[in-house]
Amino acid sequence: MSSKLKPVLAFLLGVVITLAGWHITALLVNSPALPTPLDTVPVLLANLEVLLPHFAISTYRVVVAMVIGTALALPIGLWIGRNPKVDAVLGPTLYILYPIPKIVFLPVLLVLLGLADAPKIVLIAIAIFFQVIITVRDACKQVPEDLVESVRSLGASKLDIYRHVILPALLPDLFTALRISSGTAIAILFFAEAFAGSTGLGYFIMDSWAMINYPRMFAGIIAMAVLGVILYELFDLAERRLTRWRKAA
Question: Can you give the pTM of this predicted structure?
Answer without folding.
Answer: 0.87
